[in-house]
Amino acid sequence: MIFFQVKLGQWPIVTGNFVEYYSRTFRGLATGSCVPAVSAWPGKTLFRDNIVAGRPNGSSANGVTGRNEKFKEQAFASERLLKKSRAVSGKEIRRMVEDLLSFFITLFGALIGSFLNVVIVRLPEEGGSVVFPPSHCPACKKAIAWYDNIPLASFLFLRGRCRQCGVRISWRYPLVEGVMALISLALYQHFGLTILYPIYFVFCAALLAVIFIDFQHQIIPDVISLPGIVIGFGLSFVNPFVTWQNAGLGILFGGGSFYLLALVYYLFTKREGMGGGDIKLLAMIGAFLGWQSLPFVVFGSSLLGTVAGVGAMVKQRKGGKTVIPYGPFLAIAALLYLFFRREILFLFIRYVLHG
Protein backbone atom coordinates (compact mmCIF):
# COMPACT_ATOMS: atom_id res chain seq x y z
CA MET A 1 0.00 0.00 0.00
CA ILE A 2 1.21 3.51 -0.84
CA PHE A 3 1.44 6.11 1.94
CA PHE A 4 1.58 9.90 1.52
CA GLN A 5 3.08 12.18 4.11
CA VAL A 6 1.25 15.58 4.07
CA LYS A 7 2.69 18.84 5.29
CA LEU A 8 -0.16 21.37 5.26
CA GLY A 9 0.49 23.91 8.01
CA GLN A 10 -2.56 26.15 8.52
CA TRP A 11 -5.58 25.15 6.44
CA PRO A 12 -6.68 28.16 4.32
CA ILE A 13 -10.34 29.01 3.76
CA VAL A 14 -10.54 29.90 0.10
CA THR A 15 -12.92 29.61 -2.81
CA GLY A 16 -12.82 28.88 -6.52
CA ASN A 17 -10.15 26.81 -8.21
CA PHE A 18 -7.96 26.62 -5.10
CA VAL A 19 -10.68 24.83 -3.16
CA GLU A 20 -11.37 22.64 -6.15
CA TYR A 21 -7.69 21.73 -6.18
CA TYR A 22 -7.88 20.73 -2.52
CA SER A 23 -11.06 18.78 -3.09
CA ARG A 24 -9.77 16.81 -6.05
CA THR A 25 -6.43 16.20 -4.34
CA PHE A 26 -7.94 14.74 -1.19
CA ARG A 27 -10.41 12.62 -3.11
CA GLY A 28 -7.50 11.25 -5.11
CA LEU A 29 -5.48 10.58 -1.97
CA ALA A 30 -8.36 8.81 -0.32
CA THR A 31 -8.99 6.55 -3.29
CA GLY A 32 -5.41 6.20 -4.57
CA SER A 33 -6.30 7.65 -7.99
CA CYS A 34 -4.30 10.85 -7.64
CA VAL A 35 -0.66 11.24 -6.61
CA PRO A 36 0.34 14.90 -6.38
CA ALA A 37 3.95 15.22 -5.41
CA VAL A 38 4.46 18.99 -5.40
CA SER A 39 2.08 21.90 -4.80
CA ALA A 40 0.46 23.57 -7.82
CA TRP A 41 1.06 26.96 -6.22
CA PRO A 42 4.65 28.34 -6.31
CA GLY A 43 6.26 28.86 -2.95
CA LYS A 44 3.74 26.66 -1.10
CA THR A 45 4.82 23.05 -0.62
CA LEU A 46 1.64 21.20 0.21
CA PHE A 47 2.68 17.63 -0.50
CA ARG A 48 6.24 16.54 0.08
CA ASP A 49 7.78 14.04 -2.26
CA ASN A 50 7.96 11.47 0.51
CA ILE A 51 6.34 8.68 -1.41
CA VAL A 52 7.71 5.23 -1.07
CA ALA A 53 6.39 1.82 -1.83
CA GLY A 54 5.01 -0.25 1.01
CA ARG A 55 4.74 0.97 4.59
CA PRO A 56 7.22 3.82 5.16
CA ASN A 57 9.25 4.13 8.35
CA GLY A 58 7.61 1.07 9.85
CA SER A 59 4.11 2.53 9.86
CA SER A 60 1.38 0.11 10.73
CA ALA A 61 -1.65 -0.70 8.60
CA ASN A 62 -3.86 1.04 11.17
CA GLY A 63 -1.82 4.23 10.74
CA VAL A 64 -2.37 4.20 7.00
CA THR A 65 -6.08 3.57 7.43
CA GLY A 66 -6.36 6.41 9.93
CA ARG A 67 -4.66 8.85 7.61
CA ASN A 68 -6.90 7.78 4.72
CA GLU A 69 -9.95 8.45 6.87
CA LYS A 70 -8.60 11.88 7.69
CA PHE A 71 -8.07 12.53 3.99
CA LYS A 72 -11.69 11.55 3.31
CA GLU A 73 -13.04 13.91 5.97
CA GLN A 74 -10.94 16.77 4.61
CA ALA A 75 -12.04 15.99 1.06
CA PHE A 76 -15.71 16.04 2.03
CA ALA A 77 -15.24 19.29 3.98
CA SER A 78 -13.49 21.00 1.07
CA GLU A 79 -16.14 19.74 -1.35
CA ARG A 80 -18.92 21.21 0.82
CA LEU A 81 -17.01 24.50 0.91
CA LEU A 82 -16.69 24.39 -2.87
CA LYS A 83 -20.42 23.82 -3.39
CA LYS A 84 -21.24 26.63 -0.98
CA SER A 85 -18.88 29.03 -2.75
CA ARG A 86 -20.40 28.13 -6.11
CA ALA A 87 -23.92 28.79 -4.77
CA VAL A 88 -22.87 32.16 -3.37
CA SER A 89 -21.16 33.07 -6.64
CA GLY A 90 -24.31 32.14 -8.58
CA LYS A 91 -26.46 34.37 -6.38
CA GLU A 92 -24.02 37.25 -6.72
CA ILE A 93 -23.99 36.92 -10.51
CA ARG A 94 -27.78 36.85 -10.66
CA ARG A 95 -27.93 39.91 -8.41
CA MET A 96 -25.44 41.74 -10.61
CA VAL A 97 -27.42 40.91 -13.74
CA GLU A 98 -30.63 42.01 -12.04
CA ASP A 99 -29.10 45.32 -10.96
CA LEU A 100 -27.71 45.92 -14.44
CA LEU A 101 -31.09 45.24 -16.04
CA SER A 102 -32.81 47.54 -13.56
CA PHE A 103 -30.33 50.31 -14.40
CA PHE A 104 -30.91 50.06 -18.16
CA ILE A 105 -34.69 49.77 -17.69
CA THR A 106 -34.64 52.95 -15.60
CA LEU A 107 -32.40 54.72 -18.14
CA PHE A 108 -34.77 53.71 -20.94
CA GLY A 109 -37.69 55.20 -19.02
CA ALA A 110 -35.80 58.47 -18.54
CA LEU A 111 -35.05 58.66 -22.29
CA ILE A 112 -38.72 58.15 -23.15
CA GLY A 113 -39.57 60.76 -20.53
CA SER A 114 -37.34 63.20 -22.39
CA PHE A 115 -39.34 62.51 -25.55
CA LEU A 116 -42.61 62.94 -23.64
CA ASN A 117 -41.49 66.46 -22.73
CA VAL A 118 -41.43 67.23 -26.44
CA VAL A 119 -44.91 65.73 -26.82
CA ILE A 120 -46.26 67.72 -23.87
CA VAL A 121 -44.92 71.02 -25.23
CA ARG A 122 -45.60 70.65 -28.96
CA LEU A 123 -48.70 68.47 -29.27
CA PRO A 124 -51.18 71.09 -28.01
CA GLU A 125 -49.76 73.67 -30.43
CA GLU A 126 -51.59 74.25 -33.68
CA GLY A 127 -49.72 72.27 -36.32
CA GLY A 128 -47.07 71.28 -33.81
CA SER A 129 -44.67 68.48 -34.70
CA VAL A 130 -42.78 66.23 -32.29
CA VAL A 131 -40.10 65.58 -34.92
CA PHE A 132 -39.23 68.97 -36.41
CA PRO A 133 -37.58 71.28 -35.51
CA PRO A 134 -34.92 69.67 -33.27
CA SER A 135 -34.87 70.37 -29.54
CA HIS A 136 -34.38 74.07 -28.85
CA CYS A 137 -34.71 76.55 -26.01
CA PRO A 138 -38.26 77.97 -25.82
CA ALA A 139 -36.84 81.41 -24.95
CA CYS A 140 -33.89 82.03 -27.30
CA LYS A 141 -34.91 79.37 -29.88
CA LYS A 142 -31.31 78.16 -30.18
CA ALA A 143 -30.71 74.45 -30.73
CA ILE A 144 -29.84 72.34 -27.69
CA ALA A 145 -26.65 70.29 -28.02
CA TRP A 146 -26.86 66.59 -27.33
CA TYR A 147 -24.76 66.87 -24.17
CA ASP A 148 -27.24 69.44 -22.83
CA ASN A 149 -30.14 67.11 -23.56
CA ILE A 150 -29.20 64.13 -21.36
CA PRO A 151 -32.19 63.22 -19.16
CA LEU A 152 -31.91 64.48 -15.57
CA ALA A 153 -28.11 64.83 -15.70
CA SER A 154 -28.05 67.88 -18.00
CA PHE A 155 -30.59 69.73 -15.86
CA LEU A 156 -28.46 69.20 -12.78
CA PHE A 157 -25.21 70.06 -14.57
CA LEU A 158 -26.65 73.29 -16.04
CA ARG A 159 -28.29 74.11 -12.68
CA GLY A 160 -31.66 74.44 -14.34
CA ARG A 161 -30.70 77.16 -16.83
CA CYS A 162 -30.21 77.38 -20.60
CA ARG A 163 -26.54 77.35 -21.58
CA GLN A 164 -27.11 79.97 -24.29
CA CYS A 165 -29.39 82.58 -22.72
CA GLY A 166 -29.44 81.64 -19.05
CA VAL A 167 -33.24 81.46 -18.82
CA ARG A 168 -34.47 79.13 -16.10
CA ILE A 169 -35.63 75.72 -17.34
CA SER A 170 -39.01 74.52 -16.09
CA TRP A 171 -38.98 71.84 -13.41
CA ARG A 172 -41.48 69.93 -15.52
CA TYR A 173 -38.67 68.59 -17.69
CA PRO A 174 -36.74 66.65 -15.02
CA LEU A 175 -40.02 65.77 -13.28
CA VAL A 176 -41.43 64.02 -16.34
CA GLU A 177 -38.11 62.25 -16.99
CA GLY A 178 -37.81 61.12 -13.38
CA VAL A 179 -41.41 59.93 -13.11
CA MET A 180 -41.19 57.98 -16.36
CA ALA A 181 -37.92 56.40 -15.20
CA LEU A 182 -39.58 55.26 -11.96
CA ILE A 183 -42.65 53.97 -13.83
CA SER A 184 -40.41 51.97 -16.15
CA LEU A 185 -38.59 50.43 -13.18
CA ALA A 186 -41.90 49.73 -11.39
CA LEU A 187 -43.27 47.97 -14.48
CA TYR A 188 -40.15 45.82 -14.67
CA GLN A 189 -40.39 44.95 -10.97
CA HIS A 190 -44.11 44.22 -11.30
CA PHE A 191 -44.27 42.32 -14.58
CA GLY A 192 -40.67 41.40 -15.39
CA LEU A 193 -39.46 41.25 -18.99
CA THR A 194 -42.73 39.75 -20.21
CA ILE A 195 -45.09 40.95 -22.90
CA LEU A 196 -46.91 42.95 -20.22
CA TYR A 197 -43.95 45.31 -19.84
CA PRO A 198 -44.08 46.88 -23.35
CA ILE A 199 -47.90 46.88 -23.37
CA TYR A 200 -48.24 48.86 -20.18
CA PHE A 201 -45.15 50.94 -20.81
CA VAL A 202 -46.97 52.44 -23.81
CA PHE A 203 -50.12 52.85 -21.70
CA CYS A 204 -48.29 54.59 -18.84
CA ALA A 205 -46.39 56.89 -21.21
CA ALA A 206 -49.69 57.99 -22.75
CA LEU A 207 -51.22 58.61 -19.32
CA LEU A 208 -48.22 60.64 -18.19
CA ALA A 209 -48.45 62.86 -21.27
CA VAL A 210 -52.21 63.30 -20.67
CA ILE A 211 -51.64 64.34 -17.04
CA PHE A 212 -49.30 67.21 -17.88
CA ILE A 213 -51.08 68.35 -21.05
CA ASP A 214 -54.49 68.46 -19.38
CA PHE A 215 -53.15 70.26 -16.31
CA GLN A 216 -51.56 72.96 -18.45
CA HIS A 217 -53.98 73.29 -21.39
CA GLN A 218 -57.22 71.64 -20.17
CA ILE A 219 -57.35 69.42 -23.24
CA ILE A 220 -56.74 65.75 -23.94
CA PRO A 221 -55.51 65.41 -27.55
CA ASP A 222 -57.43 62.92 -29.67
CA VAL A 223 -54.11 61.86 -31.17
CA ILE A 224 -53.37 60.17 -27.83
CA SER A 225 -56.75 58.83 -26.72
CA LEU A 226 -58.25 57.58 -30.01
CA PRO A 227 -55.19 55.56 -31.14
CA GLY A 228 -54.91 54.41 -27.51
CA ILE A 229 -58.36 52.87 -27.68
CA VAL A 230 -57.50 50.97 -30.86
CA ILE A 231 -54.06 49.88 -29.60
CA GLY A 232 -55.44 48.78 -26.23
CA PHE A 233 -58.14 46.65 -27.82
CA GLY A 234 -55.75 45.20 -30.40
CA LEU A 235 -53.20 44.23 -27.74
CA SER A 236 -55.92 42.55 -25.67
CA PHE A 237 -55.63 39.55 -28.02
CA VAL A 238 -52.09 38.92 -26.73
CA ASN A 239 -52.50 40.46 -23.27
CA PRO A 240 -52.72 37.83 -20.49
CA PHE A 241 -53.90 40.56 -18.11
CA VAL A 242 -57.10 41.44 -20.06
CA THR A 243 -59.17 39.42 -22.52
CA TRP A 244 -60.53 41.00 -25.68
CA GLN A 245 -64.09 40.64 -24.33
CA ASN A 246 -63.20 42.57 -21.17
CA ALA A 247 -61.35 45.19 -23.21
CA GLY A 248 -64.36 45.62 -25.52
CA LEU A 249 -66.71 46.00 -22.57
CA GLY A 250 -64.25 48.43 -21.01
CA ILE A 251 -64.43 50.63 -24.12
CA LEU A 252 -68.22 50.42 -24.21
CA PHE A 253 -68.84 51.04 -20.51
CA GLY A 254 -66.01 53.54 -20.13
CA GLY A 255 -66.95 55.75 -23.02
CA GLY A 256 -70.70 55.14 -22.82
CA SER A 257 -71.15 55.74 -19.10
CA PHE A 258 -69.22 59.00 -19.10
CA TYR A 259 -71.09 60.18 -22.17
CA LEU A 260 -74.41 59.63 -20.38
CA LEU A 261 -73.12 61.44 -17.28
CA ALA A 262 -71.93 64.38 -19.36
CA LEU A 263 -75.25 64.52 -21.21
CA VAL A 264 -77.33 64.46 -18.00
CA TYR A 265 -75.14 67.15 -16.42
CA TYR A 266 -75.51 69.37 -19.48
CA LEU A 267 -79.30 68.95 -19.56
CA PHE A 268 -79.62 70.06 -15.94
CA THR A 269 -77.01 72.83 -15.81
CA LYS A 270 -76.65 73.91 -19.44
CA ARG A 271 -72.90 73.70 -18.88
CA GLU A 272 -70.35 71.14 -19.92
CA GLY A 273 -69.23 69.33 -16.80
CA MET A 274 -67.08 66.82 -18.63
CA GLY A 275 -65.29 67.22 -21.92
CA GLY A 276 -65.19 64.72 -24.73
CA GLY A 277 -61.52 64.12 -24.02
CA ASP A 278 -62.35 62.63 -20.61
CA ILE A 279 -64.86 60.27 -22.22
CA LYS A 280 -62.31 59.03 -24.76
CA LEU A 281 -59.64 58.75 -22.07
CA LEU A 282 -61.84 56.50 -19.92
CA ALA A 283 -62.59 54.36 -22.98
CA MET A 284 -58.82 53.99 -23.52
CA ILE A 285 -58.36 53.03 -19.86
CA GLY A 286 -61.10 50.42 -20.23
CA ALA A 287 -59.38 49.02 -23.32
CA PHE A 288 -56.08 48.50 -21.49
CA LEU A 289 -57.36 47.51 -18.04
CA GLY A 290 -60.75 45.94 -18.78
CA TRP A 291 -64.20 46.92 -17.57
CA GLN A 292 -63.41 45.61 -14.06
CA SER A 293 -61.13 48.60 -13.49
CA LEU A 294 -63.79 51.21 -14.21
CA PRO A 295 -65.57 51.30 -10.81
CA PHE A 296 -62.32 52.03 -8.99
CA VAL A 297 -61.03 54.42 -11.64
CA VAL A 298 -64.27 56.45 -11.55
CA PHE A 299 -64.52 56.40 -7.75
CA GLY A 300 -60.80 57.04 -7.16
CA SER A 301 -60.61 59.86 -9.69
CA SER A 302 -63.75 61.47 -8.25
CA LEU A 303 -62.26 61.33 -4.76
CA LEU A 304 -58.95 62.81 -5.90
CA GLY A 305 -60.75 65.43 -7.98
CA THR A 306 -62.94 66.43 -5.04
CA VAL A 307 -59.94 66.99 -2.79
CA ALA A 308 -58.15 68.98 -5.50
CA GLY A 309 -61.34 70.88 -6.33
CA VAL A 310 -61.84 72.04 -2.76
CA GLY A 311 -58.27 73.30 -2.70
CA ALA A 312 -58.76 75.08 -6.04
CA MET A 313 -61.97 76.73 -4.80
CA VAL A 314 -60.17 78.10 -1.76
CA LYS A 315 -57.27 79.36 -3.88
CA GLN A 316 -59.22 80.78 -6.83
CA ARG A 317 -62.20 82.04 -4.77
CA LYS A 318 -64.65 81.34 -7.60
CA GLY A 319 -66.99 79.10 -5.66
CA GLY A 320 -68.95 76.63 -7.76
CA LYS A 321 -67.56 78.07 -11.00
CA THR A 322 -64.06 76.79 -10.26
CA VAL A 323 -62.82 74.67 -13.16
CA ILE A 324 -60.17 71.97 -12.82
CA PRO A 325 -59.14 69.34 -15.38
CA TYR A 326 -60.51 65.87 -14.65
CA GLY A 327 -58.25 63.87 -16.99
CA PRO A 328 -55.20 63.84 -14.70
CA PHE A 329 -57.21 62.25 -11.90
CA LEU A 330 -58.54 59.57 -14.24
CA ALA A 331 -54.97 58.83 -15.32
CA ILE A 332 -53.65 58.70 -11.74
CA ALA A 333 -56.48 56.35 -10.66
CA ALA A 334 -55.72 54.10 -13.65
CA LEU A 335 -52.04 53.94 -12.64
CA LEU A 336 -53.02 53.04 -9.08
CA TYR A 337 -55.25 50.23 -10.35
CA LEU A 338 -52.52 48.91 -12.63
CA PHE A 339 -49.96 48.54 -9.84
CA PHE A 340 -52.26 47.80 -6.88
CA ARG A 341 -55.08 45.81 -8.48
CA ARG A 342 -54.88 42.88 -6.04
CA GLU A 343 -54.84 45.10 -2.97
CA ILE A 344 -57.77 47.15 -4.30
CA LEU A 345 -59.85 44.04 -5.03
CA PHE A 346 -59.01 42.62 -1.60
CA LEU A 347 -60.14 45.80 0.15
CA PHE A 348 -63.29 45.96 -1.99
CA ILE A 349 -64.26 42.38 -1.18
CA ARG A 350 -63.46 42.73 2.51
CA TYR A 351 -65.05 46.07 3.31
CA VAL A 352 -67.73 46.47 0.64
CA LEU A 353 -69.04 43.01 -0.15
CA HIS A 354 -68.59 41.53 3.33
CA GLY A 355 -69.14 44.72 5.31
Residue-averaged pLDDT: 79
- Strand tally, please? 0
C-alpha Rg, in Å?
34 Å
Give the percentage of residues in beta strands.
Answer: under 5%
Unreliable parts: 1-61
Assign an overall shape: globular
Largest sheet: none
The arrangement of helices and strands along the chain is HHHHHHHHHH
Which structural class should the secondary elements be placed in? mainly alpha
Question: What is the count of DSSP helices, taking H or I runs of 4+ residues?
Answer: 10
- For the termini, the CA-CA separation is 83 Å
The portion of residues assigned to helices is 55-70%
Describe the structure.
With 355 residues, this protein is an all-alpha fold. Among the domains are: 17-90, no CATH class; 215-355, no CATH class. The chain is 64% helix and 0% strand. The protein has helices at residues 17-31, 61-122, 153-157, 172-191, 196-217, 222-235, 244-269, 276-289, 294-316, 327-353. α5 (196-217) packs antiparallel against α6 (222-235). The longest helix is centred in the N-terminal third of the chain and has 62 residues, at 61-122. The protein is globular.
